Amino acid sequence: MSEETIKSAAELAAERASRLSEGESKGESESEKATEAGPAELLGKIASLQEELEAAKDKHLRLVAEFDNFRRRNAREYAEIRDTAQAKALEALFPVVDNFERALQDAPAEGDWTPADPVGFAKGVRLIRDQLRKLLADAGLEEVPGEGHPFDPNHHDALTQMPHPTVPADHVASVHAKGWKKGDKVLRHAQVVVSGGPDHS
After folding, report:
1. What is the pLDDT along the chain (201 residues), one digit of tens a residue?
2. Which of 29, 167, 182, 187 could be 195's S-S partner, Cβ–Cβ 3.0 to 4.6 Å?
3. What 8-state DSSP symbol labels residue 113?
4. Fold of the CATH domain 143-201
């Protein structure tokens, strides 16, 4: 084998070795890049999942708050409906109390019963009247202030105004029909006669 052939073979081997070395280096570089890209990609996915989790938690909290508000609103509306229905049912008793009051206006005073009273009629009427008034009181109702109290258009309906020797002007002189209220809510205004004060004419 000639020297040229040996030299050519050596150069060829060196060139092949160089190419192999470059190929290995390139492969290592690509492998390193793949290794580096793997964790970065995983971190990105984790961050994305965390964002989705936070969004789901926020949505859940909003739904819980909305449901709680809905429940409270329903409870409040139910209480208002119940109170209104109860008040309407009790309002039907107001005229009954009025009639008992009128029936007792001419009845004998307590303690003035005589044998002529038919089975203590007036006393029986008073007992029934008192039971009705207790029923209204137990339901939370109370009378609107009447005779001697200042006239209040929020609680009274004035039928007329008349002079009165003892009741000051703009005060209730007499009550034609009692008013009733529950708390601050007036269920029926009292029908009253308003005093114009003493007649100086």
Report:
1. 555 555 465 566 667 666 655 555 555 555 555 455 577 788 888 888 888 888 889 899 999 889 888 888 888 888 887 777 777 777 778 888 887 777 777 666 666 555 555 556 777 778 888 888 888 888 888 999 999 999 999 999 999 999 998 999 999 999 999 999 988 889 899 999 999 988 766
2. 167
3. -
4. Nucleotide Exchange Factor Grpe; Chain A, domain 2 (2.30.22)
DSSP symbol at 150: B
Whole-angstrom distance between the N-terminal and C-terminal Cα of the chain?
A: 161
Residue 150 · residue 171 · CB < 8 Å? yes
Helices (H) and strands (E) in the chain, counts: 3, 6
Angle, CA of 182, 187 and 193, to the nearest 5° = 110
How far is the CA of 155 from the CAs of 43, 79, 130, 134, 197, in angstroms?
73, 24, 23, 21, 20
- Strand, helix or coil at 145? coil
Is this prediction's pTM over 0.90?
no
Would you kindly state where each structural domain of the chain is located, as residue ranges? 1-91, 92-139, 143-201
